[in-house]
Amino acid sequence: MSVSSFDVLLCLLKPHITGIDTNMRPCISPEEKLFITLRYLGSGCKFVDLHYSYRLGISTIAEIIREVCHFIWVVLKDMCLPQPTKENWLKIAKDFHLRANFPNCIGAVDGKHVRIIKPYNSGSLCYNYKHFFSVILLGICDSDYKFIYIDVGSYGKDCDSTIFTNSTFYQKLMNNDLQIPEPKPISSTNPIPVPFVIVGDEAFGQTDKIMRPFGGSNLTKKKKIFNYRLSRARRHIECSFGILANKWQIFHRPINVNLDLVSCIIKTCCALHNYVRERDGYKFEDTLSIPGFEEVPNGFQRATRRGASYRDVFADYFTTEGQLSWQMSSIN
Q: What's the CA gap between 177 and 166, in Å, rounded?
């Protein structure tokens, strides 16, 4: 985060985190509160480390981090993760077509396990198939590595498809409440209108609004090309998680706080991710690895007939009018 970005963030937060001086002692300044919180999120250090560095009580530091994280989310939520309008969706689709060569794509979706220390009295709710405790971060991003939507706090035992179908975004998507543009043709030779879609992996059910790769190993050339082209679009969510985890190294270790604060920390980091990404860019090396995050297990959902037919339209387009010069060498 640049100095100018820090100053702007401080100005946004100052009215919310400024305390009141008393006759006993002056309050902790908002600058120091923000310093402590960003160091905690950015370095992954523990409360004890901050206790010795800033000479503040551990309970005081815990309250500072809880307060500042809450107000960062409140202030940045509508600024950095707004509800897209029709014009925003069209711009996202245009950028995906330009950068990933995938037309009518309005996002890439995936979920990751965030490691936590076992919460009290949680039983096996947060225990996942990788044999550690976690909560799940489900995210949808654009081609600029910024999150459009996040769902935080699902138990580690859940799978991607269950979390996604239970989310408010999915309900709005199915009810056409997201101002997504009307379907339009992707080919000049095929006049069939194709809906705008979100790309995901095998964990998500194939519908007319969600595109996933063809399953199986003995695939035809057309299906292999479709899977390759879909992976070019879907990699943006993997890179987004990589930038998030490398920038905010709290994700490099198990988070040892209460579950409600875990969710607040994750939401805060996602909002700060978009904030810093918009103002200061990113390092290319951060997109190459995702330290601290683990894949969420695949569920099983049948493809709808309508969704499968639209997937075939995309597959035909990628082998005819929309083919790339290097795609054949990439699947061999």
A: 16
The low-confidence residues of the chain, meaning pLDDT below 70, are 160, 283-291, 294-303, 332
**Measured between alpha carbons, how far is 151 from 304 in angstroms, rounded to an integer?**
24
Rounded (10°) CA dihedral 223, 225, 231, 232: -160
| Residue 255: other Cβ atoms inside 10 A | 21
DSSP letter string, 122-154 = -TTTTB-TTSSBEEEEEEEE-TTS-EEEEEEEE
What local confidence, expressed as pLDDT, does residue 41 receive?
93
- The type of residue at 63 is E
Contact 299, 203 (CB under 8 A): yes
Assess contact for 81 and 88: CB atoms under 8 A. Answer: no
Q: What are phi and psi of 294, to 5 degrees?
A: -125, 150
What is the model's pLDDT at position 188? 81
pLDDT, position 147: 94
DSSP state of 218: S
Residue 134 CA to residue 11 CA, distance in Å, equals 34
In terms of Cβ atoms closer than 10 Å to its own Cβ (0-12, 13-18, 19+), residue 76 is buried
pLDDT of res. 204: 82
Q: Is 33 exposed, middle or buried (0-12, 13-18, 19+ CB in 10 A)?
A: buried
pTM here?
0.88
Query: How far is CA 330 from each of CA 80, 106, 115, 118, rounded to the nearest angstrom?
Result: 36, 24, 34, 43
Per-residue pLDDT, 73: 94
314, 211 contact by CB (below 8 A) = yes
Predicted pLDDT at 178: 85
CA dihedral 8, 9, 15, 16 (to 10 degrees): 170
Q: How far apart are CA 305 and CA 150, in angstroms?
A: 28
CB-CB neighbours of 173 under 10 Å: 19
